[in-house]
Design goal:
alpha/beta, Rossmann fold, 2 domains, about 50% helix, about 425 residues, single chain, globular, seven-stranded parallel sheet
Length: about 425
């Protein structure tokens, strides 16, 4: 076993000194979000569930909502191949915990991730003692990685993606990065550029390979059949389009597009689902200022009026089931775009703005297949939607392309699951 470099030992000492403050701040944050006190203490390594079954335990660690949800389909695939395995998912936010609970695969549990400090990690690893661990994207906590490896677990990093700033920092600390990245038996990156960046950061080159963006391979979003039935009853035969995961500055473009469309399609209904539902009041005021009548999900309403403000979490799958056309936000503004595969799984065609760097490869493949298109602004968005509403053949062609694209991604997920299973030392 390689000796720990000075920077790692200094980091361990610093976390020992800061753990009381970090524990107070982290548990307070969870408590303020409504997390029960016993669950908030999971951050300190105090488990609130027992390890289940006699088979192997595979631990998946992610940080946020997107990272956590991106691995659920992968866990499901691995679970089919390894029917004796059980799974533990750790994440850091209350929202991720809530959404994971709603979409939990079989034989799976959730806990909040322990702090990257000796005490919490020792308690966590002693209780769970995972046989194998899958880290997701950019969750590279030095002690968590090294202590987990020293526990005897095999380890894989999937969906590896680091910011340019993080890459520069790791590259400058050659001994530390080599010591940390050496824990992985396999590193699957999102693209070729990130694979090269991992090697430049002193990851072992023979264990680095290009995978795929798991967020582009996620399973279909859940659909509330009761809510879907009520929404269809409320809308009747009205045509519907959805604008989802919108950010500040994008709602006004979407609403202007809808105003243009209403002149040609007076029964057209818009379901507007902002990325952050807590912005509901702000968006409701904007809708009113633009002279559009609306109903609002957080008030218990069904779709109705010109606009339905879907300002709740976890219901996008239901709204996607009502339409063939989705505008995906985070793309008219320089946000980087959001996951188009969630839309593809629903069978709807995708329209986005030009800023999709977070899913550049996925959007390029979808555009080439005729399953997605880009627009520059609200008027262009209105024109794109009008074309699809006017031309049944164009809409049918786009939907066929989406279905073929979704099937191809499903096959790719199976291949990634097989690689992970092999790297973790299991025989399917």
């Amino acid at each position: 076993m390689a000796s720990a470099p000075f920077l790692y030992r200094a980091y361990v000492a610093l976390t020992c000194a800061l753990v009381p403050l970090a524990a107070y701040l982290e548990t307070k944050k969870l408590r303020q979000a409504g997390v029960p006190v016993h669950r908030a203490h999971e951050k300190l390594g105090h488990a609130t569930e027992d390890r289940q079954g006699s088979g192997p335990l595979i631990w998946f660690h992610a940080a946020s909502v997107g990272e956590s949800l991106s691995v659920l389909a992968l866990i499901t695939r691995i679970g089919v191949a390894l029917p004796d395995a059980h799974f533990l998912i750790t994440s850091g936010t209350p929202t991720s915990a809530e959404l994971i609970a709603a979409r939990m695969p079989p034989r799976c549990m959730h806990q909040f991730a322990p702090l990257d400090a000796p005490g919490p990690l020792k308690r966590f690893l002693k209780h769970w003692h995972p046989d194998a661990v899958v880290f997701v994207e950019s969750e590279l906590w030095p002690q968590m990685l090294r202590r987990t490896k020293e526990s005897g677990a095999r380890m894989v990093l999937v969906n590896a993606r680091l910011s340019a700033k993080s890459i520069a920092q790791w590259t400058k600390r050659a001994k530390l990065s080599a010591y940390v990245f050496d824990v992985f038996d396999l590193i699957l990156t999102q693209n070729d550029a990130m694979a090269q960046a991992m090697v430049d950061m002193n990851a072992p080159a023979d264990r680095v390979a290009r995978g795929s963006n798991l967020k582009s391979l996620a399973g279909p979003l859940p659909v509330d059949q009761d809510a879907l039935f009520e929404a269809r009853a409320a809308l009747g035969h009205r045509p519907v389009w959805v604008a989802s995961s919108t950010h500040p500055g994008e709602e006004i473009e979407v609403l202007q597009a809808h105003q243009i469309l209403l002149k040609r399609f007076p029964d057209l209904h818009l379901i507007l689902a902002p990325r952050h539902p807590q912005r509901g009041d702000e968006i409701a005021e904007l809708i009113s200022e633009m002279g559009l009548n609306y109903t609002r999900r957080s008030s218990g309403d069904d779709p109705g009026g010109a606009v339905f403000l879907a300002d709740t979490l976890g219901e996008l799958g239901t709204w996607y089931a009502l339409t063939d056309i989705v505008f995906l936000g985070g793309s008219l503004e320089p946000i980087g775009g959001h996951n188009p595969f969630e839309v593809a799984q629903s069978g709807a065609t995708v329209i986005s703005g030009p800023h999709v760097t977070n899913f550049a490869e996925t959007f390029a493949e979808m555009e080439d297949a005729g399953a997605a298109q880009h627009v520059e602004d609200g008027p262009a968005l209105a024109q794109a939607i009008a074309t699809l509403l006017d031309d049944d053949t164009a809409l049918h062609t786009a939907k066929s392309a989406i279905a073929q694209f979704a099937d191809a991604q499903t096959d790719q997920l199976d291949r990634i699951a097989a690689r992970v299973i092999k790297a973790l030392g299991f025989a399917p």
